[in-house]
Amino acid sequence: MFAPEVQRIVLLIGLAAAGYLLILAWNEDYMQPEAPVAPAEAPELGGGPSVPDIVAPQAAGETPTGAVPADSDIPDASLIGTRAPDDAGRPAQAETVPNRLVRVTTPTQDVWIDRLGGDVRRVRLPKYPVSLDRPDRPFNLLDVGNGRVYMAQSGLIGPDGLDSGTDRPLFDSGGADHHRVEPGEVLELVMRANHHGVQVSKTFTFDADDYLVDVAYRVENPYDRPYQASLFAQIKRDGGQPEDGGGFSMGPQPYVGAALTTSESRYEKLEFEDLDEGPFRSTERGGWMALLQHYFLSAWIANEEEENTYYGRKRADGTYTVGFTGPLLSVAPGASGEWRTRLYAGPKDQKRLEQIAENLNLTVDYGFLWWLAVPLFWILDWLHGFVANWGVAIILLTVLVKMVLYPLFSTSYRSMAKMRRVAPQMKRIQERYAGDRQKLSQEMMSLYKKEGANPLGGCLPMLLPMPIFIALYWVLYESVELRQAPFMFWIEDLAAKDPFFVLPLLMGGTMYLQQQMSPAMGDPMQVRMMKMMPIIFTVLFLWFPAGLVLYWLVNSVLSVAQQWYVMRKADVAAEVKS
Questions:
Q1: Torsions phi, psi of 421, nearest 5?
Q2: DSSP3 helix / strand / coil % (the chain, rounded to 5)
Q3: Element (DSSP H or E) covering residue 533
């Protein structure tokens, strides 16, 4: 028969193994994300322009003539300070027009454009699969269908504009309904329409290697008077969560909503809840309006030299529209005029976004510790350029952080070594003055002063890494570069949890070892609470991104090594001195 100590060890090992298997089974049954619904071959034609019936002349209290109906996609003409045309008429039976969708396929995007209005109804990203299990299925950023509404719209409004509350132009795309753009090529997709005798073209310019699309309107004015119109560009979206969901349930969630840059704020969030309370409006020079989600965004970028009116509102059908209207431009009789904007629909690539527009890179939202997260990402990206593995880059970043903080940690560990040496004397003082708290406090402070010990010094190793930990959490969680990035062995996605929970368990073990090396501080209740910390952290980290757990594991291993070295050195010096 085994000794009681051996039996206890075997029992603990058995319980640990059973608990590990239970966690794996629970994760398999309850923590797997739902499989995304397979999209249709083409986006739905519903959910787009909502056209109410033509009603009789208004009675008192009804919507004034020229105002946009509440369920229309088109921005209200008041955004440019003018009335909409009264003679608006919709192309007959637009829903029954064959081949309304035009598809453009590039190495970076797969785009569906509706000839009615020239709206972008779907954008797929071939370089970003939905999941590692489905590398053949591109991620759908914009889409209309399966209960989703997320599309990019643009047009001309104003006295002579093509678009109004009851009117969208039906463009002619020249017959071809699918265009392919090879690497290195540029495609100009020109769609034309005749609006009350005015020839209008809408041109989409696709770069095969970019996610930025130029959109331009060109008008030939046949009138003997000026042609006046204003460009609008907006994003229409439902208020639901995107396909890829948010963060894990125990951590902060990525932001899903609108954002823009203003003269007062470089990065201002415009949440759906804000639009529930009322419409938004702001006039800015240049700027952009974007809709953000985890890793990806869509954004309309305005011309830098123009004054634009930015807006957001909740529609009657529960969807939201955010965008801008440009200034009212006038085209002289017999002349031609042009209105331009740009649409970005793709990943939150910080370097590219910074090139496109000022402050657009801030849509990579690192939270309140952005000032720490940004340089961390720069260093991480620089290290990745050498090692070509994000996991190895995280390990090297952890080593660099430990080297920078080495002097502070060494001071803390030396203080812990002193506290460990005075522990027997502290225990005797506590026993001697157990009934006199004032005297006990005085004697303990005298002992700390005599021995040069600091009871708070040991807290430093736990407090210092926390801001870095939080900042690195957002770096790993918000940076699309780490999405589905493999490390080695079973870690195929550093932005997802460890599928076998090996890293969290190793991290918990190193935290427990580090705790055993530290002197027990506080009353018995506090000591028991501290002993629970490795267990609490291990359970919490089970569903943290593997890259973040890797950072904390390497940090703990280095801390154990540094603590052993510094405290051993301090103990030897104290023995020599005594």
A1: -70, -35
A2: 40, 25, 35
A3: helix 524-541
